[in-house]
Fold this protein.
Amino acid sequence: MRVITSAPGRICLFGEHQDYFGFPVVASAIGLRGMIESETRSDRRVHLELLDLEDSKEWDLDALPEPGPRDYWLSALHVAKKEGWLPPVGWNARVTSQIPQQAGASSSSALTAAWCALIALRHGRVVDNEAGREWIAHATWRSEVQWFNEPGGMMDQVMCAMGGTREIQFNPNFQTRQLTNPSGVWTLIDSQQPKDTLGILSCAKKRRLELIAQWGVEIGEEWPGVFPARPQDWTAVEHRLMDATIRIREVSSHGAGLLASQPKAIEGIGKLLTEHHHWLSHGLEVSTSKIDELLEASLAAGALGGKINGSGGGGTFFVLSTAEAAQSVRTMLEMEDANVIPVELGAPGIEVKYIP
């Protein structure tokens, strides 16, 4: 059997750095994909060619070694073996990706989702319908986050596996709501600054959880209507972290509501995106001076709004423009030597293509 599985990257529209608190997020899959082409072998070995990295890996399905840090290729095989969806025979596979790597656009989750889909498909599971894509989202999360006890949430895995533009609810139960793709011209910009994903996530999540516990606020689907007094010994930095946490929750709630009710109201959406970025940058300090400067220049050139994408510390950001202003924004960014990538929102999730 020869088959290709693929999954999209994503941008987070509203709710950055709050999915791991169990708060809702709104994200959209983008038309850049990670792809794995494969054919069946006659033995129990798996050979993997990472074409973009000029690297290769090979394993015996009957003697899988323990995964090293963030070795999602191998952890997914272990999860499949543990849960009973490891295929009976091996395969050869070749991996390519259109998604900027280590840039906050979910390049790793897209490939892990495509890899989990390939493993499950070769075991006989249907993976390219709504139920199958949701199952792959959870399998990808178990392979990436749960296996390594990493600090991230589940937004990336859901969007890469399920696609579309979605509001994702985590509390009290997991559910997603498909939204209409917002209007406007969307542009992804790669700052080409390397990210420290785990360091950013650990700091942003761990410290704020500690402060929330000290404050005595219960984390649920919504914040309480009235907040208790904050501890008197908090520093200015600690107050700023909580201010940002509250404001990110508020702007994300307003943004989700606007996207759901008025997806063509791009001026309002743009303003909320920029406000979201302000709290991420000046509140949580997950942006960089280069990204802040390029975003400010984009707004001056006519963009309606934008924000950093992903955990931060570098990587990508995106801007929303009208069709009339999009070329001016792109020209300005290219003059600044930025890597400019036009993207379409609402790309499909896991796709399967059989090759004769």
